[in-house]
Design goal:
The chain has about 270 residues and is α/β, with parallel strands linked by helices. It contains ten helices and eight strands. Bound molecules: zinc ion.
Length: about 270
Amino acid sequence: MFNSKIKTGLFLAILLCMSCQSENLYEEPENEVKMTLPEDAMATLNFLKDQGYLEEDLEPDLAREAFIYAEDMAIPFGLKPNLDKNVPDDAQKNQWYLSLYGVFYVNSRNITYYIDYDFPSEYILEFAWAAYHWSKVSPNININRTYSRYSADIVLGAYYNENTGAYATAALPSGNGNVGSWMQINVAKDHEALSAESRMTLMIHELGHNLSFLHSNQVEGIRIPGTSDAAFHQAYTCGSIMRSSVYVCGWQLSPWSQWSSDDWRSIGWSYGVY
Ligand SMILES: [Zn+2]
């Protein structure tokens, strides 16, 4: 008798629990997200909407404290509060006002990256080449590896997401004058099926996001003076390394670069080129 009461109790508890779960399934996920967005994220969301971003394109990722935008870019929750806090002085102004995600030269001249334990090994050499190419194109960009996670500007890692086209995601700068603080490979994708050149061009592209560049074939952000418009970059696969779908376009794991003319203009305008 005693036993059967316990069983009934357990059975009821399980039923109640299941009904809780099924109720949750019908809740609007958007409402749930809005309830839990921290204050800095709300300020950044409202700021981005004022800049012309659509809220439905900004997917909050609470774990990574960023809005995932256009699949492979992460806009840090702290962007707006950081922009308010880090008002540039005169020496920094020229560079700082170029974009929402501006980076001070004092930071871009000395960028370090740290390879976390989960960063896929087949990307280590390719990332080093990508860092080399960014370092060789501009006197105001230098990227080197560090073995200190604490002092690193960019931490390289991994994530798993089957429901995205992105092979990697990179953080845009967070408005504090430094580069975006992380880049992660989506390990749900088959990276070994890619050529080494494809992996390297992907790394150049993602580092471009860390350095504040958006997609050449999309219309958000600033169109850099003298560069072709989004329609051009939608039509031509080799018009820029910052096209949302990256093609190899002659890049090799060698010191010879294949920056397009729009890449040269964009980098020259924002960081200066050699
Ligand atoms: Zn991208």
